[in-house]
Structures are given as structure tokens and as C-alpha cells.
Amino acid sequence: MVKEIEYQKHYLSLNRAELIARLERALKPSRFKHVLRVEQTAIKLAKQYDVDLEAASVAGLCHDYAKQRPDEDFITVIKAKKLSKELLDYGNAIWHGVVGAELVKDELGVQNEEILNAIRQHTTGAAYMTPLAQVLYMADYIEPGRDFPGVEKARQLTKADLGLGVAYQTQATLTYLAENSKPIYPKTLETYNAWVPKYRKELKNNG
Ligand code: GDP
Ligand code: FE
Ligand code: FE
Fold first, then answer.
1. How many Å apart are CA 107 and CA 26, to the nearest integer?
2. What is the pLDDT of residues 187-197, one digit of tens each?
3. Atom of ligand 1 nearest to the CA of 185
4. Which residue from 36, 44, 18, 16 is spatially nearest to 138, judged by alpha carbons?
5. How many C-beta neighbours within 10 Å does residue 148 have?
6. Using CA positions, which residue lies closest to atom 9 of ligand 1?
7. Ligand 1: which residues within 6 Å by Cβ?
8. Nearest ligand 1 atom to alpha carbon 34
9. pLDDT in tens, 158-169
10. Does pTM surpass 0.90?
């Protein structure tokens, strides 16, 4: 366990303990424990890759804040904020990050756009991701509670090269979605095109 950090930079008006209390109320216990592990993993990666630790903590804790909200909440936000209508064709898997970031902003008071974008991008990735967004995307995938074929490889590659980890996860997720005939959100394809061919050689050597 990484030592708990004391918030200094006021990415939100709550302190870490208050934020954690809000999350514990918003989430079921297993999801709450997941966000605590994502926070710790994000802080570890942030140390290695020179990303702001407090931003990594806030992003890690808040990334799944909206996961347990009913569909109506997301549909209301999509309409009220005039977000892309294309979002209505998807569901909780896409909404809890892309639309959930709006609830993180409005209900938890996180105003920092880099943190909000990292939350928006945490499920699908994006063609351009800041180091913070890459850290969150990988922390969510490799946190110690994750157990699926390939997770050890993902941990190893992420430790060696953050961008390679992003490419590995993106390729695995797209393959999984296609093999299971799931709808692919266009941004997921953009992420694939931006990251996977770039790491073609390394992915081949590490397949
Ligand atoms: P979690 O919220 O911690 O469970 O993790 P994520 O937010 O990363 O992922 C939620 C789910 O979204 C996972 O099951 C992913 O496989 C799925 N997912 C990722 N990209 C897409 C996509 O483009 N389309 C669909 N339908 N699902 C996706
Ligand atoms: Fe998520
Ligand atoms: Fe998550």
C-alpha cells in the first residue's frame, strides 16, 4: 500500500477522506474496493512515469464513480449537456466514463479538464491520451484484483513501457469485443489505429 497522500492542489474541494466517503456511498463494496486498488496502482505508475500523484489519486478514485447509476441518469445528462447523440446507441459500459465524467464534475466538483478527460477515456482510450490518461487506462486494467488471461503480460509490458501497455490493452479489448460480437464504440477503433500499429513489432515479440 502506497502511503496515503494529502491533497494540496485543490483539484476538488473535498479532501481525500471526504472523497472516499462519497465513493463508498455511491458504489457497491466490490466496486469501491476496485477503485481503491486502481488509485494505488495509478499512484505507483504515476511515480514511475513522472505524472502528478494527486491527479493520479483523484482520477483513480473517481473513474468509476457513475458505474452504478441507472441508465436514465446518463440519458438525462446526454440530453441536458447536448453530448453526441451517437452515445444513445451504447450503454453503461461506455456511459459510465464518457458521461460519468460530467457527474464527477457536477457532483464531486472536479474541475480539472485533464483529470476529467482521463475519466472520459478510461474505458475506450483515445487517439491522444496524456500520460495521466494512459496511467489511468492501464491502472484500471492491471490493478491487483484483475484476473484474466494476459493480465500478467499487461502488467509486465506496462512496467517496461507505458505506451506499449496502452497498445496491448487496446488490441486485447478490440479482439475480445469483435470475437464476442459486441458493438465497438468508434473511439475504441480510433484508439486502436493510433496505438496498435505503432507498437506492431513489440506486440508481435510479446504476443
Ligand atoms: P470497469 O468499469 O472497471 O469494469 O472497466 P472499464 O471501464 O475499462 O470497462 C467496462 C467494460 O467496457 C469492459 O467490459 C470493456 O470490455 C467494455 N468496453 C470497452 N470498450 C468497449 C467498446 O468499444 N464497446 C463496448 N460495447 N464495450 C466496450
Ligand atoms: Fe470503468
Ligand atoms: Fe474501473
1. 11
2. 999 999 999 99
3. 23
4. 44
5. 10
6. 123
7. 64, 67, 93, 97, 122-124, 140, 173, 177, 182-185, 188
8. 3
9. 999 999 999 999
10. yes
